[in-house]
Every structure is written in C-alpha cells, then in structure tokens.
Amino acid sequence: MMRLVLLPGMDGTGKLFAGFVAVLPNTVPAQVAHYPADIFLFYTELAPLVQSAIPANEPFVLLAESFSTPLAIQFAAMHPPNLKGLILCAGFASSPRRGLARVLARMAVPFLFRGTLPAFADPLLLGLNAPLSLRASLQSAVSSVASPVLAARFRAILACDMRADLSRVDVPILYMRATHDRVVPLFCLEEILKIKPMTEVACIDGPHLLLQREPQKAAEVATRFIRQLETSD
C-alpha cells in the first residue's frame, strides 16, 4: 500500500485534515505533518519536517494543501526515494497575487492576523453555509498559532516562486481545483499546466478549503489517483 503524507494549509496544525482522513479507505494509510505554532520557518526550513513525516522504506504520495503546495513542489524536486506522486490541492507554484494586488495584500497583513480570523474569512475559505462545527474547527486551528507566525507565512506565500523546482519534478501530478476558490485564482493552475502539461486536473465543486468542505469527493479523487500509481508501478 502507498502511504499518503499530508502537508497542511497555513495554520500548519494538520488538525483540519481530520474529516478528510476519516473518509479515506483503510487501504490508504495517512500520515499528517504539522509545523511549529510559535516559530516561523521558511519553506526551505520546513523541508526537514516533511522528511521526518515520510516513510523510510515504503512508497508514498505527497498531498499538499494551499500554503504547503510550494513546499511540496520544492521537496518533490529533490527526488526523494519512494515518492510516487504529488497531489496539489488549491495550490500554486508562485505567488497567487500579482502586481498591485500583491502590494495591497502585503499592506493588509497587520489587519488580517490578530489572533482570530476576520469575519469575512469564513465564507472566503469555507464558502457559504459551512457547518458551525467546521467553522469552529477552523477558528480553533488558526487561534492556536501565533499571529506573527501566520503573518510571516502569508508573506512567504506572496513571495514564493517554485516554478524552476516544478520543472524538475519527475513524478505524476494531480491538481485538485476547487471550482469556487476565491483565494487561489485560476491562473495558478494555468501556470502549473504550462510547466507540467501532463498534470491531471480534478475539478471539485467547493470553496478554497476543499478537503474540509468536500472530504468524501476529495478522498475519492485522491484514492483513484493513488490506485492508478499502484497499477502502473
């Protein structure tokens, strides 16, 4: 069996994967990485944490969500042994904000990260009519991370550029796109396809936090990709 190693979104806790992991079949064992809540680490500094999460002697697939997708690309470009595939969920190889939008986003950092998510963040990330329990889980995960760490991670997103690393990735790639993603624009996928035209794309009806709002659909897509890799291996 191939193990699925999960790299979390900007909160870095890995707690928001609980619903997704719960609906994975027993034949897809999952390992969740997590990042320090009180210390900011650059993408290059997070690589050892990814290394510690992957199995030593068995095949695995790396699934990264949003913030972690540049990290996963960077890690996959180093050709780690036993990596069989890469899944990017609502991801990007370079900054999802360009030009003036990037400048304005950087200016907004002090107002966005004050310990709790602003009121507009819930519908932006989870879409409309998200269950109260899921909204509470999101707030809990975010509030458990120091505000300066979240702010620094947001700046890292705005500054990232892993396009050269992406060109060196030599394993199959699946991109899971949320059709109602209001955080990561479509041009991020188009950029990835320009560099890696053989990338498989799965469009799922849902908001940015796709694995949290549509865990069953996302698990089915990920499982199908893993099964294809097992068959071709």
Structural class: alpha/beta
* Total count of domains: 1
**CATH architecture title:** 3-Layer(aba) Sandwich
Computed over alpha carbons, the radius of gyration is 16 Å
Number of helices, where a helix is a run of at least 4 consecutive DSSP H or I residues: 11
Low-confidence segments: none
Q: What distance lies between the first and last C-alpha atoms, to the nearest angstrom?
A: 11 Å
Order of helices and strands: EHEHEHEHHHHHEHEHH
> What is the fold named in CATH at topology level?
Rossmann fold
Q: For the residues shown, what is the average pLDDT? A: 92
Strand order of the largest sheet: 2-1-3-4-5-6
Task: Report the helical percentage.
Answer: 40-55%
CATH top-level class: Alpha Beta
Principal-axes shape call = globular
Largest sheet: 6 strands, parallel
Strand content: 5-15%
Tally of DSSP β-strands: 6
CATH homologous superfamily grouping? Alpha/Beta hydrolase fold, catalytic domain
Polypeptide structure, described:
- With 233 residues, this protein is an alpha/beta fold.
- It has helices spanning 18-22, 43-53, 69-76, 99-112, 121-126, 132-143, 147-159, 163-168, 186-195, 210-213, 215-232, and strands at residues 3-7, 30-32, 60-65, 83-89, 173-178, 200-204.
- It has one domain: Alpha/Beta hydrolase fold, catalytic domain (Rossmann fold, 3-Layer(aba) Sandwich).
- The chain has 11 helices and 6 strands.
- Strand 1, helix 1 and strand 2 (30-32) form a beta-alpha-beta unit.
- The longest helix is centred in the C-terminal third of the chain and has 18 residues, at 215-232.
- It is globular.
- The mean pLDDT is 92.
